[in-house]
Amino acid sequence: MTRARLFPQPLRHLQDRIATGIITAGGIGVLLAILGIGVFLVWEAAPLLLHSGTDSLAMLSPLAWGTLKAALMALLFALPLALGAAAYTAFFMSARLRSRIKPTLEMMEAIPGVVIGFIAGMLLAPWVERHLASTLMVIVWLPLSAGLAGLVWHLASRRWQRRLPLSWAALWLIPWLMAMFILALWLTPLVEQTFWDGDLRQYLHVAFGLDYVTRNALIVGLAMGFAVIPSVYSLAEDALNEVPRPLMEGAQALGASRWQAVVKVALAAAGPGLFSAVMIGAGRAVGETMIVLMASSNAALLSASPFEGMRTMAAAIAIELPEATAGGTTYRMLVLAALLLFLFTFLVNTLAELVRQRLRRRYQHLGNTS
Fold first, then answer.
1. CA 192/CA 138 separation, integer angstroms
2. In terms of domains, do 21 and 106 share one?
3. What's the whole-number average pLDDT of the chain?
4. What does pTM read for this prediction?
5. Is the dihedral of CA 315, 321, 323, 324 positive or negative?
6. What is the pLDDT of residues 206-258, one digit of tens each?
7. Among 289, 346, 334, which Cα is nearest to 59's?
8. 46 and 160 inside one domain
9. Do 82 and 171 share a domain, yes or no?
10. Residue 210, in any domain of the structure
């Protein structure tokens, strides 16, 4: 029996129209919900803006600074790792290893923020407080040791390069980095005694007037950066993987090495997609609540020191809104903070979508001309 007999033509048309109507209604419902949230926030924050004007925005400046500070610390930690891993996975890693590594990294996005915040606040923060010099030594030394490994591999003989192929560097670099990690911890007491009189925290306080708080921007940056890496990596890797292969092959045919083709051709072609990934990662970092709530001191400070705490707008809303009286000044200040977060997230996502559409048109043009 043919498919046409099982599903008559009018019935199939009816099913298509019902499905189209449901999808259209869902899309319109989402748009109306976003519009409703924006209208509600503007309506609730309008009295405060009309009466206080710019004073209300000035009162939110410590929260805004804390939000930007936390997001910047997270991006400084996440972007080099995520973008570097995306470039390596897309152009250098073997297909067999990529089929296992990429899903594993993407599954990291499913880890709840409250779990990351709990680990950062209860385990990471006390350890860093006791071993501040070791932490900074590891943060500085591990990237340098990774570059040193690449230099040694480049200078090695062809036989060793075949034994340790670049496509499997994600595996043979693990013991090297572990050895460098142990070496950094072993050298830390000598470095601290030589340069910082045996106590880095005391040296920072005396020389620069920097106080160290247990839960600070450094802890938030490490924890939030860990949470941001999967989303940035996934979007960046997809953008790089969609670069037309004829572009890479043409660059290599003209004499460019694979690394030169990646830097000068692939990154330029995938630039809009990479920018979109960075913007979405920034939006995630700005809107994160539980990690900042559990891993920072939640003190509203206007300080650029990475060793002091901060309070973000999202954390302030989570802490103070349950106790705020509806219609009161505190309530309207928190609504205004929510409005600023809403506008930032909306603008970031809109910009990311516009860039993604530009990338799609560029790929279509390249595909038509190739």
1. 13
2. no
3. 84
4. 0.84
5. positive
6. 888 888 888 889 999 999 999 999 989 988 988 888 887 777 778 778 777 77
7. 334
8. no
9. yes
10. yes
Asked whether residue 68 falls in the same domain as residue 38, the answer is no
Q: Is residue 11 part of a domain?
A: no
Percent of the chain with pLDDT over 70: 94
Positive or negative, the CA dihedral 11, 15, 16, 21 is positive
What would the mean pLDDT of 142-171 be, rounded to a whole number? 85
Phi first, then psi, for residue 165 (nearest 5°) are -70, 150
pLDDT (tens digit per residue) in 343-360: 888 888 888 778 777 766
Report which residue type is found at 306: P
Same domain, 64 and 22: no
| Residue range(s) defining the domain that contains residue 20 | 16-51
Q: Which amino acid is at 345?
A: T
Question: Are the C-beta atoms of 281 and 226 separated by less than 8 Å?
Answer: no
Query: Is 183 found in the same domain as 286?
Result: yes
In a domain, 6, yes or no: no
Chain segment 257-270, per-residue pLDDT in tens: 778 888 888 888 88
